Structures are given as C-alpha cells and as structure tokens.
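Section 3.1: Structural characterization of target chains.
Under the original work plan, the team committed to producing a structural model for every single-chain target entering the pipeline before any wet-lab resources were allocated. The record below documents one such target. The sequence was received from the expression subgroup and is listed exactly as submitted; it comprises 478 residues.
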Amino acid sequence: MSYVLRPPTSGLDDLSEESRLIATPWSRIVRGIGLGQYPIGYDRATDELIERSVTMLSDKLDGADDYTTFSAALVDLILTTVRPRGTDAAVDRGPRLGVVASAVRAIENPYSRAIAGTILLDTLSKLDLRLGEVARDVARQVLAAVDQIKPDAIQDENQGRHGDYERVSASTAMFLAFDRAGLADLLSGERDRVSEALAALENVPTPFFRGRGGAMLIGAIALLGREDSLASNGTADSILATMDAVDDIGLYPTFPSSMSEGFIKAYPLLTMLSALSTLSDPHRYVFSGTDRLQEATDLMAELEPVERTHMALYYVMALENLGQREAYLPDLNAFVEQVVGLWPDIDPGRDYFLYGISYAYLIQLAYLSGRVDLITDTMINRMLGAFRSLEVTPEGRANRPYPFSYALNVLTELGRGDLLHTPHPDYDGRSPYSWVIEGLSDGGREEGGRLYMLDHALISWALRLRAPNRSRETRTPR
C-alpha cells in the first residue's frame, strides 16, 4: 500500500510571506529561523511521536548538550500550550517557561544562546503568548549574546573565512524574531542595531558567505521597515559587486563534498534574488546592467545533476518571489519532473552533505510545487535507509545528524513522521530514529557541531501543532 502523504501546502500560490522568504531547509535547520511553518493544529498521535522523539534524544545525551536541554524544554512548553486542556494549560505554562528561559541562559556559546533566545521569542509569538516583560527580558539576553559573538569562531572546514558571519546570522534571526514579537523598539535608540549588523556584514570576507548571509539580512531588515538603511549603505549593490568579483578576490568556501564553480556562484546569487524581492524596487538590482535572472538560469544549466537537487528549489523560489517565473520557467511542471526524476541515479548514503541531503531538497521541491505525486514510496524508503551507510567513516558518523534532521523535517511536513519510528529492514528491525539516536556517541561529543540541527527539526515539528492563524499564514499579495 502506498504511503498517504499530506503536503503542507497546495503549491507556490499558497505560501505565506514567511515561507516565501524562508522556504529552504538551510535557513530553518541550520540557522534556526522560520521554524514551525505550515501549522496544522493539534493532533494527539503526532504529539506522542514528538514527545517520544525528544525523550529518546534527551535520554541518550543525559544533559551533556546544553542546546538540546533548551530544545527539550521548549518542546515541552509548546506541547503543553497546544494540548486541548483549557485553563490548566495556562497554569502549567508558567513553570515551564521558567525552565526554558533558564536553559537559554545556560547555553555557553554566545551565538547558540542568541539563536535559542530568538527561537523562544518566535515561539511565544506564534503561540500567541504575549508575556510582556518576560519577552523583553529574553530579548535583552539576545542583544547581550549578539554582542559577545567573536569573528571567525565557527569551528568547521571554513575556519578563517567567515569573519563576522555568525554575528550577521544572529542579527538576522534577532530582527525577524523581534519584529514578530513587537519588540523592534529595542533595536534602536542609543545603538542602532541595524547599522551595526550592516557594518558586521562588511567584515565577512568570503563572497559566498557575504552573499548568502547578506541575503537573509536584507530580507529581515526590509521586513523591519528599515529599507532606508539598506539604501543609504548601498548594501545590495555592495553584495552583488563582491559576488561578481569572487574570482579576483580569490576567497572560496570549502564544502564537505567537492562542489563546482557554478554551485559556489549560484547559491549566494539565488538567495540574494529572493531577498531582493522584499525591496520596494527589486528590478533596479535584478535588471540593471546585468540580467541577474538570466545569470542564475545559465548557472543552473552548468550544475552537476546532484548539485541541481540542492539549487532547484532556490531557483524556483527566486523566480516566484520576483514574479518572473512565467518569463524564465514557463513550464514549471517539466522542470520539477526533470529535477525530482534525478533521484534513482543519486545515492543518499554516499555522503552526509551533497548526496545525503539531496532527497530532502527534492521532496520539498515536489510538494511546494504542488507535485507530491512525484514522491514515491521507493524514494522515501531509500532516504530512510541511507543513514547506515554513513557508519563507514568517523566523519560520516559524526555528521549523521545533518542529513537525518533534513529527512525528519520533510517527512514531518508531509505528515509522515511515523515512518521514522517504524521498524526498517536496513536497521535490523529497529526504526531509523532509534537506530540513529542509539548510535550517537556518549554525550554527543563527536556530533556536537551537528546536534543542534536535530533540535531545530524537533522544535519545528512541535510548533506546527499550533492552530493555523489565517491572518498570518496566508500569502501577502505583491
């Protein structure tokens, strides 16, 4: 019997403003912004699955990871709030909120502490918990944490190429959360946090990171109503010029997998194009001198097939957000069929990044484009069974939460989180979730740099159980 899939949206025309700006898994799973999209309302069976998932992870780590401790406490608050328990829920929320707030303060890394604080604020807003001074206290903690973020503190393969990239990313999350929570007044006054974030962006030396991080910053600042700051700083022009000069600058990112020159140029360009759609006159940047959409189209044609699985959703969203899909991609169905149809020739167990997250991108491209029919049982089962292949190398084992969190995200958005807890033949009769969690190192020491992705996926899953708010969730006309 075929899996019954329940796509979160009927297609591109049904997306909210948040989903158009934060459509891809990278922003949500890696950066922790835009969690809980596509609310569905409370479901007891899903509640039980989420609680089981969080408990298994918490029991395995046994308090060793401060970010997972925060995540578990926040999920508990979310589930307590959305459960149909009447006035009892309000009584239970107070102590739980205190536990979450304490967990945020206990996070040692300032970047992680800032992101946790913004996630808490975003959650309170999405749950319609207007807690006044409590929210402002959390916001002040976020401001203080952002001030403590040091340049080049990211310990990964791009050590020394980031500059103030973490500060830019944290500022983006802060602007989005403060705006939703009605706390934008805290961003100005004695200090103009928007101007400070734009100054930090200038200290991101690598064109790839300046483009990708700057794109999300532009979108967040535009939503704050501060487009004037972007104009006076010449931010969009500066980012585009830096991206154009990438070969002269000679600073390139390093990826866990070998990536083509086209990918390195396409990724920041496509994120920038979507961000430009939030400005009052995006065509000034898109079509002035260089046709940036044609440039993006040409780069898409240069990509290797597995690279296209990552970039296709970015491309579609950029065209959609700019109102140019008919001009540059008149046959969306044919494009989606071709890209999603690449899956039989791509092994998601080959590595944890380029191949490992490819199916998640393909699945999301399919359902956001209204083509859930392209997602087959065989495709889902192959993605579910791929995590054992990463057991072969220490690097694969340590980074396994990366592709697993992406898979969890798309399956739960399709209403099939139960498949993660269903016995699977590739795991000796155990479920994929139990096999992956039981295989974590003691205290998550080896996977520490990736565990937060799983935390974000679990928070997002729980937050979707809130009741839909049509005034917020419907698409904003352009």
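Residues 12-473 form one domain.
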